[in-house]
Amino acid sequence: MTRFFQKREGEMDTITTNPPERLQEQHLAMVPEKPTVVEEAFQNEQGEEEPSGFLERIQHRVPHLYYVTVQLILPLLILIGMAFFFGWLLARAEMKGEIEANDAALRNTFETFIEYMELRQKIWKATPEISTQCLEDHNVTLSDYALEQVQECAGLEAKDRFRNQSLDFFFTQNTPDGAMSFNWMTCDKLNLPGQDEAIDQEDVLEEAQKSGLNRESSHDVQFVLYVSAFYLDLEVLSYLGAGLNPEVDLYEDAAPFTEYVEKSTGGDACRVHVAGGAIFWFTIMTTIGYGNTAPVTPEGRALVITLGFLTIIGFLALNNTAATVIRVIVDDMFLRCNLNSFVHGPIACIFWLAMTIVWVLVLAVSIMAYKDNRLGGAEEANFPLGDAFWFSYVTTTTVGFGDFHLEHEEFQVGDMFFIPLLVLIGFNILGIFAEKLIELYNHYFPERNGFEAILEQRRRKANGTQVKTKVWV
């Protein structure tokens, strides 16, 4: 007992002779670095007491399944869910502005169309005379009565065909396709007056191809539906203005177009494009920002400023959690296989750099498959591997130059669980590589005295007093 107390006294003497700075350094050295929640769970020994809670029992019995589900899959799904909800709000706010812009482009076209109609009227009236004159000049078999009937039939047929074909030609050649967009809305159904069945995209696709469109894309089909809805609305307004007189022919006079064109719209065939809003909000949340479109309404910009900022913070937090789970699982696998060099050091950095490059390539191949599936044999579907790899790289690194982007018109709801999910996993892998690289740097350039400790010593000297630092255990 005497020896014990003597030993304790010796220890106390040693401690009291040390200066306060030395005491603090010893205390800091004795405090172990606190592991993360995920690392702490994976380091639990089997001999520990069984937790009482249901989730805690699952966490200790099957930690891999628990953390992969709760802190990897669930955060990724939450991010996609946030993109859907806030993207829908944004698309709903921006749809009105997009309809107004598209209608304005069509109104400019109809101003030119009115001038075109006046010139066409002169040719149209002369069409029956031209077509029937040939019959009269070259007839050698028909009687006078038969010739008169054939001339009347041919003249009316030629007149009607000229009218329809000239209109198709005009709208195909003069409607500003590039000036119209479908980022925030999708036009997939056109209800005709007096008919139960509506015209959908499948019905329009064949007619769109006949009109000279060069690609089989959702944009072209929506373009035709929007123009058709605008023209139908214009006809209805014109007939109502004419007192519901079915004898009024809109092709005979440009006045109805001039009077009612400002009231017409093609937005009746459209609805909110949920998938388009979701992919755009995904680019906001991840700060990629391709720049292919941007909110223009005050409501849309307010949403981006407020909720957009919050979702960026949420993305950083949830993405970091998911990356930690992936890193811990892979490190645990290497440690079990006695591959410690793949956990720390240069080899670990090289491994995660290689994984980043491989994943960028996987995303590039997926983008190529997506383009081919959405655009079929169209020219835009020809996406070379070099361009796809470039797009994948600027997406994974969140550079987002905007030279390539995902077309909102082609994007569907199910695609949010394909391309964006691959992009999120790419963010995780890139983050792990950055973490390993920082760890390697700190190993070769360790923190000697510590920046904070040096500043504390300077404060002591400046104040001439001892400054106590609170140590968090």
Automatic annotation (TrEMBL):
Membrane topology type? Multi-pass membrane protein
Annotated ranges, domain Potassium channel: 277-326, 358-440
Which locations, inside or outside the cell, does it occupy? Membrane
Q: State any GO CC term.
A: plasma membrane
Supply the alphabetized keyword list.
Ion channel, Ion transport, Membrane, Transmembrane, Transmembrane helix, Transport
**Pfam families documented for this protein:** Ion_trans_2 (PF07885)
Say if the entry is tagged with keyword Transport. Answer: yes
Q: Where is the chain membrane-spanning?
A: 65-91, 272-290, 302-330, 342-370, 416-434
Name the Gene Ontology molecular function terms of this record.
outward rectifier potassium channel activity; potassium ion leak channel activity
Q: Which InterPro entries match?
A: 2pore_dom_K_chnl, K_chnl_dom
Highest rank taxon of the organism: Eukaryota
Its name, as the record gives it, is: Potassium channel subfamily K member
For this entry, list what GO says about its biological process.
Answer: stabilization of membrane potential
Question: What family does the entry list?
Answer: Belongs to the two pore domain potassium channel (TC 1.A.1.8) family.
Q: Does the keyword Ligase apply?
A: no
